[in-house]
């Protein structure tokens, strides 16, 4: 016979990924006496979207990701999203720097490395686009040190592996940004949780699955099952954050808040080609991003990516997109079906009809042969040999579908926070560039859910210490931006050349 225990706490975080880790630590820094319970379905932290093998690890700063700077119908380049992401990543760097300075995190080299970010294209049309993109971004201080070239020899200096054996007569172009980074979000997340577990009032529970949650007067009643013992728990709390990656949508639906109506999800899976030849791995020390295929989701932007994972250098190419009805890598094939409800059927069908090119693209990706995947790799690594690469499964993402003003569905690429009107519940949906911008996303969440405390003098003073640029745009304050970049590079041991 299983027992049921009842507990009360001030904050519940569901999911042990980078978002819950960031929010938990921000809250404990702002209010040290806060009591926090964290529940994770798996047996370790950061095993899903935050794991190094399951995400791009690029330290998304919009330096090289071309999907953040689309070309508009009039031929101009949209820069708004790129600038926002760049500013957001600078906020993350400041927070991580603060944690290292205060010795709350040790050995930053275990989770962040300086790695130049390159964009690389070929063909007259793409070269013209990259040139216009470079010129558009030059108006912003945070992109001032970006370099542009159409010189083959210069590209060879930046990315020799990409040019090795290249015989195409197509015109090429590339941009390079020295402030790029590689981030192991799995290692970072686990380090934050390791620190959180040492703090009074924080409890982290693995192998615990949240089955139900319901608002009862001023408290949320959460039903949790200990998967190891079968014990049932009822947790009462005034505030819940759901940061369960692809699993967040199903929990949002169980919460049954009006703000969550109409939301649906479209799952996209991924795979990498991983290099197994140490000699090839040595030749590449940058991250090179290209242009996505027509209809491809943003997570499928092709890149040849140098990574540091668990102390070893790795080289990945991809991701190759695919389709699965799972919402998590360790999820159920019934996740998609279970997510369909009366309020989101119309938006989901509408989004499907509007995104037929995406559906076609995913079907093509699913049926790709190993030769097809090698052909795609050879566009970026012409000298690639099949025996040097193996296929690995990457993470699972759920793209957000929500209602527009007419009640039809819109497929959103990016992250979205859904908050209850009273601020008692917040849910993070979506994917890239999520992890890289986690600090900014959680600060916005705190502003929505704890508005009075965020305005209070103690919290404001603490936020200024943690994030020196808090409340300011670094792009509008060049001198401050230079000072902060210099300091965070020193503290995080980033050797920028």
Summary keywords:
single chain, 497 residues, alpha/beta, FAD/NAD(P)-binding domain, 9-stranded mixed sheet, 6-stranded mixed sheet, 32% helix, globular, EC 1.1.5.4, L-malate dehydrogenase (quinone) activity
Q: What's the layout of helices and strands?
A:
Blueprint: E1 4-8, E2 11-14, H1 18-30, E3 36-39, H2 80-101, E4 112-114, E5 117-122, H3 124-137, E6 147-149, H4 152-158, H5 160-163, E7 172-177, E8 181-183, H6 185-196, E9 202-205, E10 208-216, E11 219-226, E12 232-237, E13 240-242, H7 248-255, E14 264-275, H8 278-282, E15 287-289, E16 303-309, E17 312-322, H9 335-339, H10 345-354, H11 356-366, H12 370-378, E18 389-403, E19 409-412, E20 415-419, E21 425-430, H13 438-449, H14 451-455, H15 457-466, H16 478-491
Parallel strand pairs: 1-12, 2-3, 2-13, 3-9, 5-15, 13-21
Antiparallel strand pairs: 4-8, 5-7, 6-7, 10-11, 11-12, 14-17, 14-18, 15-16, 16-17, 18-19, 20-21
* Whole-number tally of structural domains: 1
Please provide the count of β strands.
21
Strand content: 25-35%
Described by the principal axes of the CA atoms, the overall outline is globular
Mean pLDDT: 90
**CATH C-level name:** Alpha Beta
EC number: 1.1.5.4
Keywords: FAD, Flavoprotein, Oxidoreductase, Tricarboxylic acid cycle
Pfam families: Mqo
GO biological process, one term: tricarboxylic acid cycle
